[in-house]
Amino acid sequence: MRTTPPRVAVVTGAASGIGLATTLRLLADGWAVLLADRNAANGAAALEAAADLGHEAATAFTTCDVATEADVEAAVDLAVSRFGRLDCIVNNAGVGGAFGAISTIEQSDWDYTFAVMARGVFLGIKHAVRAFEQAGEGGAIVNVASVAGLSGGAGPQAYSAAKAAVISLTQTTAVELAPQRIRVNAVAPGPVLTPLLARTEDRVQDMRDILETTQPWPDPGRPEDVAAVIAFLAGPDAGFVTGETIAVDGGQTAA
Ligand code: NAD
Protein backbone atom coordinates (compact mmCIF):
# COMPACT_ATOMS: atom_id res chain seq x y z
CA MET A 1 0.00 0.00 0.00
CA ARG A 2 1.37 3.45 -0.91
CA THR A 3 1.37 6.03 1.85
CA THR A 4 1.07 9.76 1.19
CA PRO A 5 4.26 11.60 2.14
CA PRO A 6 3.66 14.13 4.91
CA ARG A 7 3.31 17.80 4.09
CA VAL A 8 6.32 19.75 5.28
CA ALA A 9 6.39 23.10 7.09
CA VAL A 10 9.02 25.46 8.44
CA VAL A 11 7.84 27.24 11.59
CA THR A 12 9.91 30.20 12.74
CA GLY A 13 9.93 31.11 16.42
CA ALA A 14 8.92 27.49 16.97
CA ALA A 15 10.57 27.06 20.35
CA SER A 16 7.96 28.91 22.43
CA GLY A 17 4.39 30.16 22.68
CA ILE A 18 2.34 30.32 19.48
CA GLY A 19 5.15 28.83 17.37
CA LEU A 20 5.47 25.79 19.61
CA ALA A 21 1.70 25.27 19.75
CA THR A 22 1.59 25.55 15.93
CA THR A 23 4.38 23.01 15.59
CA LEU A 24 2.60 20.51 17.84
CA ARG A 25 -0.70 21.10 16.04
CA LEU A 26 0.82 20.58 12.58
CA LEU A 27 2.58 17.43 13.79
CA ALA A 28 -0.71 16.11 15.19
CA ASP A 29 -2.28 16.83 11.79
CA GLY A 30 0.38 14.67 10.09
CA TRP A 31 2.88 17.30 8.93
CA ALA A 32 6.67 17.13 9.25
CA VAL A 33 8.03 20.34 10.77
CA LEU A 34 11.40 22.06 10.74
CA LEU A 35 11.54 24.19 13.88
CA ALA A 36 13.59 27.36 13.32
CA ASP A 37 14.37 29.58 16.28
CA ARG A 38 17.28 31.63 17.56
CA ASN A 39 16.95 30.04 21.01
CA ALA A 40 18.70 26.66 20.76
CA ALA A 41 18.01 25.63 24.38
CA ASN A 42 14.27 26.15 24.01
CA GLY A 43 14.50 24.51 20.59
CA ALA A 44 15.94 21.37 22.14
CA ALA A 45 13.13 21.35 24.73
CA ALA A 46 10.56 21.79 21.93
CA LEU A 47 12.04 18.83 20.04
CA GLU A 48 11.79 16.74 23.22
CA ALA A 49 8.15 17.74 23.67
CA ALA A 50 7.45 16.65 20.08
CA ALA A 51 9.35 13.37 20.60
CA ASP A 52 7.34 12.65 23.77
CA LEU A 53 4.23 12.83 21.59
CA GLY A 54 5.73 10.34 19.11
CA HIS A 55 6.82 12.83 16.44
CA GLU A 56 10.61 12.39 16.62
CA ALA A 57 11.02 11.35 12.97
CA ALA A 58 8.89 14.23 11.72
CA THR A 59 10.82 17.03 13.41
CA ALA A 60 14.18 18.75 13.16
CA PHE A 61 15.50 21.95 14.69
CA THR A 62 17.81 24.60 13.32
CA THR A 63 19.17 27.68 15.02
CA CYS A 64 17.99 30.59 12.92
CA ASP A 65 17.83 34.35 13.29
CA VAL A 66 15.01 35.36 10.95
CA ALA A 67 16.56 38.80 10.49
CA THR A 68 19.59 37.21 8.80
CA GLU A 69 19.05 36.14 5.20
CA ALA A 70 21.64 33.34 5.21
CA ASP A 71 19.94 31.74 8.24
CA VAL A 72 16.49 31.81 6.65
CA GLU A 73 17.82 30.49 3.35
CA ALA A 74 19.60 27.66 5.20
CA ALA A 75 16.46 26.79 7.21
CA VAL A 76 14.35 26.45 4.06
CA ASP A 77 17.04 24.38 2.35
CA LEU A 78 17.37 22.13 5.41
CA ALA A 79 13.62 21.46 5.44
CA VAL A 80 13.76 20.42 1.78
CA SER A 81 16.87 18.25 2.18
CA ARG A 82 15.65 16.63 5.40
CA PHE A 83 12.02 16.02 4.48
CA GLY A 84 12.14 16.12 0.69
CA ARG A 85 9.81 19.05 0.00
CA LEU A 86 8.31 22.24 1.40
CA ASP A 87 4.59 22.97 1.51
CA CYS A 88 4.33 25.81 4.00
CA ILE A 89 6.22 28.38 6.01
CA VAL A 90 4.77 29.91 9.16
CA ASN A 91 6.51 33.25 9.71
CA ASN A 92 5.87 33.53 13.43
CA ALA A 93 9.08 34.69 15.15
CA GLY A 94 8.56 37.95 17.00
CA VAL A 95 9.75 40.20 19.76
CA GLY A 96 7.93 42.66 22.02
CA GLY A 97 9.17 45.90 20.49
CA ALA A 98 9.91 49.19 22.18
CA PHE A 99 7.25 50.59 24.49
CA GLY A 100 6.68 54.22 25.40
CA ALA A 101 5.90 57.57 23.82
CA ILE A 102 7.08 58.02 20.22
CA SER A 103 9.53 60.73 21.29
CA THR A 104 11.31 58.27 23.60
CA ILE A 105 11.85 55.41 21.14
CA GLU A 106 15.47 54.83 20.15
CA GLN A 107 16.15 54.35 16.45
CA SER A 108 18.04 51.13 17.26
CA ASP A 109 14.93 49.67 19.00
CA TRP A 110 12.77 50.67 16.04
CA ASP A 111 15.20 49.09 13.57
CA TYR A 112 15.50 45.89 15.62
CA THR A 113 11.71 45.48 15.83
CA PHE A 114 11.44 45.89 12.06
CA ALA A 115 14.42 43.61 11.41
CA VAL A 116 12.84 40.67 13.26
CA MET A 117 9.19 41.14 12.37
CA ALA A 118 9.08 42.87 8.96
CA ARG A 119 12.39 41.86 7.38
CA GLY A 120 12.07 38.39 8.98
CA VAL A 121 8.68 37.84 7.34
CA PHE A 122 9.96 39.18 3.99
CA LEU A 123 12.91 36.77 4.10
CA GLY A 124 10.69 33.84 5.07
CA ILE A 125 8.35 34.55 2.16
CA LYS A 126 11.25 35.08 -0.27
CA HIS A 127 13.00 31.81 0.46
CA ALA A 128 9.86 29.69 0.80
CA VAL A 129 8.76 30.98 -2.61
CA ARG A 130 12.16 30.01 -4.04
CA ALA A 131 11.60 26.44 -2.79
CA PHE A 132 7.95 26.38 -3.93
CA GLU A 133 8.95 27.58 -7.41
CA GLN A 134 11.63 24.89 -7.72
CA ALA A 135 9.05 22.19 -6.96
CA GLY A 136 6.32 23.88 -9.04
CA GLU A 137 3.47 22.61 -6.86
CA GLY A 138 2.37 25.82 -5.16
CA GLY A 139 2.52 26.32 -1.43
CA ALA A 140 1.14 28.15 1.60
CA ILE A 141 2.53 30.99 3.67
CA VAL A 142 1.06 31.99 7.02
CA ASN A 143 2.33 35.16 8.66
CA VAL A 144 1.73 35.96 12.31
CA ALA A 145 0.66 39.60 12.57
CA SER A 146 -1.28 41.08 15.51
CA VAL A 147 -4.44 43.06 16.23
CA ALA A 148 -1.91 45.82 16.96
CA GLY A 149 -1.26 45.96 13.20
CA LEU A 150 -4.96 46.32 12.38
CA SER A 151 -5.85 49.40 14.39
CA GLY A 152 -4.43 52.25 16.44
CA GLY A 153 -5.00 52.48 20.14
CA ALA A 154 -2.24 52.74 22.66
CA GLY A 155 -0.13 50.01 21.08
CA PRO A 156 3.65 50.00 21.09
CA GLN A 157 4.41 52.08 17.98
CA ALA A 158 7.27 50.09 16.45
CA TYR A 159 5.54 46.75 17.07
CA SER A 160 2.22 47.94 15.61
CA ALA A 161 3.88 49.45 12.54
CA ALA A 162 5.92 46.29 11.91
CA LYS A 163 2.76 44.16 12.18
CA ALA A 164 0.92 46.51 9.79
CA ALA A 165 3.80 45.92 7.37
CA VAL A 166 3.27 42.17 7.74
CA ILE A 167 -0.42 42.55 6.88
CA SER A 168 0.41 44.68 3.83
CA LEU A 169 3.05 42.22 2.65
CA THR A 170 0.51 39.41 3.08
CA GLN A 171 -1.84 41.18 0.67
CA THR A 172 0.71 42.24 -1.96
CA THR A 173 2.43 38.86 -2.11
CA ALA A 174 -0.91 37.01 -2.19
CA VAL A 175 -1.79 38.91 -5.36
CA GLU A 176 1.64 38.40 -6.93
CA LEU A 177 1.86 34.69 -6.13
CA ALA A 178 -1.71 33.50 -6.76
CA PRO A 179 -0.99 32.50 -10.40
CA GLN A 180 1.62 30.07 -9.03
CA ARG A 181 -0.94 28.62 -6.58
CA ILE A 182 0.98 30.03 -3.64
CA ARG A 183 -1.41 31.27 -0.96
CA VAL A 184 -0.37 33.95 1.54
CA ASN A 185 -2.45 34.62 4.65
CA ALA A 186 -1.99 36.01 8.14
CA VAL A 187 -3.43 35.66 11.61
CA ALA A 188 -3.82 38.66 13.89
CA PRO A 189 -3.91 37.43 17.48
CA GLY A 190 -5.20 39.50 20.35
CA PRO A 191 -3.54 39.03 23.73
CA VAL A 192 -2.39 35.43 24.17
CA LEU A 193 -0.71 34.31 27.35
CA THR A 194 2.78 33.34 26.14
CA PRO A 195 6.25 34.19 27.44
CA LEU A 196 6.29 37.20 25.04
CA LEU A 197 3.27 38.74 26.71
CA ALA A 198 3.94 37.57 30.25
CA ARG A 199 7.54 38.83 30.26
CA THR A 200 6.76 41.82 32.47
CA GLU A 201 4.07 42.53 35.04
CA ASP A 202 3.15 45.69 33.02
CA ARG A 203 2.26 43.58 30.03
CA VAL A 204 0.25 41.10 32.07
CA GLN A 205 -1.63 44.10 33.50
CA ASP A 206 -2.20 45.39 29.91
CA MET A 207 -3.76 42.03 29.09
CA ARG A 208 -6.01 42.16 32.15
CA ASP A 209 -7.08 45.70 31.13
CA ILE A 210 -7.90 44.54 27.60
CA LEU A 211 -9.89 41.60 28.96
CA GLU A 212 -11.88 43.92 31.22
CA THR A 213 -12.42 46.73 28.72
CA THR A 214 -12.11 45.86 25.02
CA GLN A 215 -12.27 42.08 24.59
CA PRO A 216 -15.84 40.74 24.63
CA TRP A 217 -14.82 37.09 25.11
CA PRO A 218 -14.26 36.51 28.83
CA ASP A 219 -11.18 34.27 28.63
CA PRO A 220 -7.63 35.08 27.49
CA GLY A 221 -6.43 33.58 24.24
CA ARG A 222 -4.36 30.39 24.32
CA PRO A 223 -1.50 29.59 21.92
CA GLU A 224 -3.54 26.57 20.76
CA ASP A 225 -6.40 28.86 19.66
CA VAL A 226 -4.05 30.68 17.28
CA ALA A 227 -2.34 27.44 16.19
CA ALA A 228 -5.68 25.98 15.07
CA VAL A 229 -6.31 28.91 12.71
CA ILE A 230 -2.74 28.78 11.39
CA ALA A 231 -3.14 25.05 10.71
CA PHE A 232 -6.37 25.74 8.80
CA LEU A 233 -4.69 28.42 6.67
CA ALA A 234 -1.70 26.14 6.04
CA GLY A 235 -3.77 23.23 4.79
CA PRO A 236 -5.95 22.33 1.83
CA ASP A 237 -9.24 23.31 3.53
CA ALA A 238 -8.14 26.92 2.97
CA GLY A 239 -7.41 26.24 -0.70
CA PHE A 240 -9.41 29.28 -1.94
CA VAL A 241 -8.31 31.65 0.85
CA THR A 242 -5.48 34.05 0.09
CA GLY A 243 -4.52 37.61 1.04
CA GLU A 244 -6.61 37.31 4.20
CA THR A 245 -5.77 38.34 7.75
CA ILE A 246 -7.88 36.52 10.31
CA ALA A 247 -8.20 38.12 13.74
CA VAL A 248 -8.00 35.57 16.55
CA ASP A 249 -8.86 37.98 19.31
CA GLY A 250 -12.00 37.09 21.26
CA GLY A 251 -13.95 39.78 19.37
CA GLN A 252 -11.58 42.65 20.25
CA THR A 253 -11.47 44.13 16.73
CA ALA A 254 -15.24 43.69 16.31
CA ALA A 255 -16.06 45.59 19.51
P1 NAD B 1 7.21 33.89 22.46
O1 NAD B 1 8.19 34.85 23.05
O2 NAD B 1 6.57 32.87 23.33
O3 NAD B 1 7.86 33.16 21.21
C1 NAD B 1 8.58 33.88 20.23
C2 NAD B 1 9.67 32.97 19.70
O4 NAD B 1 10.33 33.67 18.64
C3 NAD B 1 10.73 32.63 20.75
O5 NAD B 1 11.00 31.23 20.76
C4 NAD B 1 11.96 33.42 20.29
O6 NAD B 1 13.20 32.77 20.60
C5 NAD B 1 11.73 33.47 18.79
N1 NAD B 1 12.45 34.58 18.16
C6 NAD B 1 12.49 35.87 18.56
N2 NAD B 1 13.29 36.56 17.73
C7 NAD B 1 13.74 35.70 16.80
C8 NAD B 1 14.60 35.81 15.69
N3 NAD B 1 15.18 36.99 15.37
N4 NAD B 1 14.83 34.72 14.93
C9 NAD B 1 14.28 33.52 15.25
N5 NAD B 1 13.49 33.34 16.33
C10 NAD B 1 13.21 34.42 17.09
O7 NAD B 1 6.10 34.81 21.77
P2 NAD B 1 4.64 34.50 21.16
O8 NAD B 1 3.67 35.27 21.95
O9 NAD B 1 4.44 33.06 20.93
O10 NAD B 1 4.79 35.28 19.78
C11 NAD B 1 4.77 34.64 18.52
C12 NAD B 1 4.25 35.62 17.49
O11 NAD B 1 2.92 35.99 17.84
C13 NAD B 1 5.06 36.92 17.41
O12 NAD B 1 5.20 37.31 16.07
C14 NAD B 1 4.17 37.90 18.17
O13 NAD B 1 4.40 39.22 17.76
C15 NAD B 1 2.80 37.38 17.78
N6 NAD B 1 1.73 37.82 18.65
C16 NAD B 1 1.71 37.46 19.96
C17 NAD B 1 0.67 37.91 20.77
C18 NAD B 1 0.59 37.55 22.23
O14 NAD B 1 -0.26 38.12 22.92
N7 NAD B 1 1.39 36.64 22.73
C19 NAD B 1 -0.35 38.71 20.23
C20 NAD B 1 -0.29 39.06 18.89
C21 NAD B 1 0.75 38.61 18.09
Automatic annotation (TrEMBL):
The keyword Oxidoreductase applies. Keywords: Oxidoreductase. CDD domains: SDR_c. Pfam families: adh_short_C2. It comes from the Bacteria. InterPro entries: NAD(P)-bd_dom_sf, SDR_fam. The keyword Oxidoreductase applies. GO terms for molecular function: oxidoreductase activity. Belongs to the short-chain dehydrogenases/reductases (SDR) family. NCBIfam families: PRK07231.1 (NF005559). This is SDR family oxidoreductase.
